């Protein structure tokens, strides 16, 4: 019993990760981390619900810092957005994804990858031309890239962003509205921007089976998207029951722990090989 108390005391004495005892992470730390190659990408598979076919991956950024430990993406993405480092970070993500798609193509494992973009990234009118050039240099099709957009509170140059998105779409790059139904991902965006995909936020999917309100929201999102000829993706699918219910109401794609968590590159490669062979 006293050992138990000792253990409890010890636990309390250990500083918890990410609290007071740790120095605050700054934008300079993030820039240094990018330069030191401390960031990596993992790839979460996305499945088509009519035939359970693997249709691609979502690239998700990870930062393992020798100083701060594993920093959650929500933390460093927000830091990047607030400090302007997000452009460098997104450039790095896109370059990394294009290189990976190219390596997979060389192994006859062509696939699609979705990249998360912040609307802050869409202020440079040269962005579409640069991106299309990179894809072409690596002999990749624009259709192999999906850009997932979450509107952030920091955007002001709306006109440029819209212009850029239309150029990207006209050239075959797919556009996805992420976290639909939450915060800033709104109906107005759906009307203005030529999206090809709508991602229903995880919070609605999590409560979907047991809460009439969530169910109504999910069904309405799917109906709305289909009327606009936009496909739907459910994120955060964790159980077979949820998957079946989503299938029954005609959701197109899904991703989540039920299928796979975000995977390392070797794991994703194995999965692609298993599908192709
Ligand atoms: P998101 O785009 O909504 O990504 C989905 C998040 O849900 C990911 O969290 C993923 O790991 C997690 N997830 C996937 N399946 C499940 C599930 O079945 N259950 C639960 N509970 N969670 C699941 P993650 O990787 O921590 O990323 C958090 C957010 O950070 C992302 O949300 C995205 O907004 C942002 N983010 C991540 N990587 C990037 C990036 O490269 N660029 C930008 N701009 N944002 C990124
Ligand atoms: Ca996303
Ligand atoms: Ca999302
Ligand atoms: Ca989300």
Provide a descriptive summary of the structure in words:
Residues 23-276 form the EAL domain. It comes from Rheinheimera tilapiae. The protein is built from 11 helices and 9 strands. It is of the alpha/beta class and 277 residues long. An 8-stranded mixed beta barrel has the order 1-2-4-5-6-7-8-9, surrounded by 5 helices. Strand 8 (231-234), helix 10 (240-248) and strand 9 (253-254) form a beta-alpha-beta unit. Helix 5 (127-137) runs parallel beside helix 6. It is globular. One calcium ion (CA) binds next to loops.
Task: Give keywords.
single chain, 277 residues, alpha/beta, globular, binds calcium ion
End-to-end C-alpha gap: 57 Å
Small-molecule binders here are: ligand C2E, calcium ion
Proportion in β-strands: 15-25%
Which spans have pLDDT < 50 for at least 5 consecutive residues?
Answer: 4-18
User: What share of residues is helical?
Assistant: 40-55%
Structural class, by secondary structure, is alpha/beta
- Envelope shape: globular
Strand order of the largest sheet: 1-2-4-5-6-7-8-9
Number of helices: 11
Overall pLDDT, averaged?
A: 90
Protein name: EAL domain-containing protein
Domain EAL: 23-276
Keywords: Phosphoprotein
């Amino acid at each position: 019993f006293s050992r138990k108390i000792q253990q409890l005391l010890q636990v309390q004495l250990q500083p918890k990760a990410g609290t007071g005892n740790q120095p605050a992470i700054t934008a300079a730390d993030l820039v240094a981390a990018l330069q030191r190659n401390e960031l990596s990408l993992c790839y979460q598979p996305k499945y088509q619900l009519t035939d359970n076919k693997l249709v691609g991956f979502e690239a998700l950024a990870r930062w393992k810092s020798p100083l701060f430990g594993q920093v959650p993406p929500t933390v460093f993405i927000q830091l990047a957005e607030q400090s302007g480092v997000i452009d460098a970070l997104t450039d790095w993500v896109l370059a990394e994804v294009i290189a990976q798609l190219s390596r997979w193509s060389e192994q006859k494992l062509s696939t699609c990858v979705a990249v998360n973009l912040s609307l802050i990234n869409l202020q440079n009118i040269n962005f579409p031309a640069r991106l299309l050039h990179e894809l072409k240099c690596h002999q990749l099709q624009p259709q192999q890239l999906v850009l997932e957009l979450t509107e952030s509170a920091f955007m002001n140059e709306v006109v440029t962003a819209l212009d850029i998105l239309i150029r990207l779409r006209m050239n075959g790059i797919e556009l996805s509205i992420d976290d639909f139904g939450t915060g800033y991902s709104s109906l107005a965006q759906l009307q203005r921007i030529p999206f090809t995909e709508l991602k229903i936020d995880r919070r609605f999917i999590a409560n979907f089976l047991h809460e009439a309100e969530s169910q109504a929201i999910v069904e309405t999102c799917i109906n709305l998207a289909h009327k606009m000829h936009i496909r739907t993706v459910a994120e955060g699918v964790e159980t077979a029951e949820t998957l079946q219910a989503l299938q029954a109401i005609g959701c197109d794609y899904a991703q989540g722990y039920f299928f796979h968590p975000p995977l390392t590159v070797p794991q994703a490669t194995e999965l692609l090989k298993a599908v192709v062979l």
